[in-house]
Design goal:
Strand 1 and strand 2 form a beta hairpin. Helix content is 44%, strand content 16%. The model has no long low-confidence stretch (mean pLDDT 97). By secondary structure, it is α/β, with parallel strands linked by helices. The structure holds octanoyl-coenzyme A (CO8).
């Protein structure tokens, strides 16, 4: 039997997915991305899960797309096989919050996978780079689009054109990651954060994620309109009334995720 490339654990309301190709530093091949997509959709559809964490190993979150697999592909192979689009982008269908817990290298597609998550928690050992230019390739799993939106054109161009790597603290300063923690605390702190997020009302979390993502997709006026509609829809939610009445009654809210 072949070993799972994605390991799934459940911690309370948090689903944890661990990339597991340690000998290849979690290089992301089709089989792994298929498994990751299926695992993400399974957790997204599981009513007992409120947030998802994707992590790798101590040495590598992921060292990028699998160069061994790609080396001899033709244009027709990638075009007809819908490379990246077919399975890497499954993460875009996930409506629950997804956190990346990154230690070690997050290179190329590994960095792009982290960028596709909603919150990135970096261990001090984390290193982020888009070194595709060294292969005469380009960051083609969202890197040329998400990175400039995250850290601006100047830093993104530098990273994409020179393959410059950022350490965890630089990545934090530039806005690529959300938080930096000591390596030993990466999983406990990420799980604590994910548990906090997952304790909130799931429909509220989904609405917030959708609304924040809209900021990348629309003009300010359109985004504000979208946000306002999302806000009005909150008034149709039992949890929103519970949240406000619990505050007024000076008690903890009990959310039904409705
Ligand atoms: N693909 C396949 N195998 C890999 C990869 C990879 N991306 N990275 C590491 N490995 C393998 C190595 O080949 C090696 O295998 P073996 O033991 O069989 O020789 C094993 O993992 C361990 O790696 P190293 O011996 O190289 O370990 P080091 O500690 O010396 O170096 C590094 C670690 C710095 C991470 C080094 O392995 C490295 O530079 N890896 C490649 C990084 C890279 O270029 N990543 C970008 C890939 S391209 C990409 O992600 C594009 C995605 C977007 C769409 C696709 C368009 C191209």
């Amino acid at each position: 039997m072949t070993e799972a490339l994605i390991q799934t654990e459940i911690h309370g309301r948090v689903g944890v997915l661990t990339l597991h190709r340690p000998r290849q530093l979690n290089a992301l091949n089709d089989a792994l991305m298929d498994e990751l997509g299926a695992a993400l959709l399974a957790l997204d559809g599981d009513a007992s899960v409120g947030a998802i964490v994707i992590t790798g190993g101590a040495r590598a979150f992921a060292a990028g797309a699998d160069i061994q697999a790609m080396a001899d592909w033709s244009y027709s192979d990638v075009h007809q096989g819908a490379f990246i689009t077919r399975n890497w982008e499954t993460i875009r269908q996930v409506r629950k919050p997804v956190l990346a817990a990154v230690a070690g290298v997050a290179l190329g597609g590994g960095c792009e996978l982290a960028l596709a998550c909603d919150i990135i928690v970096a261990a001090e050992s984390a290193r982020f780079a888009l070194p595709e230019v060294k292969l005469a390739m380009l960051p083609g799993a969202g890197g040329t689009q998400r990175l400039p939106r995250a850290i601006g054109k100047a830093k993104a161009m530098d990273m994409c054109l020179s393959a410059r790597a950022l350490d965890a603290h630089e990545a934090d300063r530039y806005g690529l990651v959300s938080r930096v923690v000591p390596d030993a605390e990466l999983m406990p702190r990420t799980l604590e954060l994910a548990a906090q997020v997952a304790s909130y009302s799931l429909p509220a979390l989904m609405a917030i994620k959708e609304s924040v993502n809209r900021a990348w997709e629309s003009s300010l006026a359109e985004g504000i309109l979208f946000e306002r509609r999302a806000l009005y829809a909150r008034f149709a939610s039992e949890d929103a009334h519970e949240g406000m009445h619990a505050f007024l009654g000076k008690r903890a809210p009990v959310f039904k995720h409705l």
